[in-house]
Amino acid sequence: MIIRKILYFFYISLFRFTAEIYRPYAIISPQLRQLLVKGFLNKCGKNVRVKRNADVSMFMELGNYSELGTNCIIQSNTKIGDYVIMGPDVKIYTKNHGYSSLDIPIALQANEEKEVVIGNDVWLGANVILTPGVNIGNHVIIAAGSVVTKDVPNYAIVGGVPAKVLKYRNKNEAK
User: Fold this and answer.
1) pLDDT tens-digit profile of 119-129?
2) Which of 23, 43, 95, 97 is flagged as catalytic?
């Protein structure tokens, strides 16, 4: 665990903001980001991509051939499947403020944490927000700017605030 914490420290403090692969001066910075992230995540697949300024927790899982998008924020207790791609500025939240008691200010109530699970072959568009506890099925597309507050079934294309099913990628899937 101490090695993971050291790798996380180096990633957060030094390598998170290094140049992207398409910059001529990037040299090896994308590979260093990938190596560090692979070393500190709970579970990390092969051939992952880590884009610039990906703010991620140590306590998450990332599948094979998946990516952490530019400027993303991913909290702990998140599981990301294989072949998941992210547009920039995706936010995946697993924690929320408690608010059930009217006698205690919200700021003083305990945080609640709920796992977020993303299936395989999923495309999260730019500025997508996933709220705590949602499960995203396999082969899903989430339109840019969507706020997902409920589970998303396999093959769905969703969009909006809050996100709703617009259609299905697979015509055999029924609502």
Assistant:
1) 999 999 999 99
2) 97
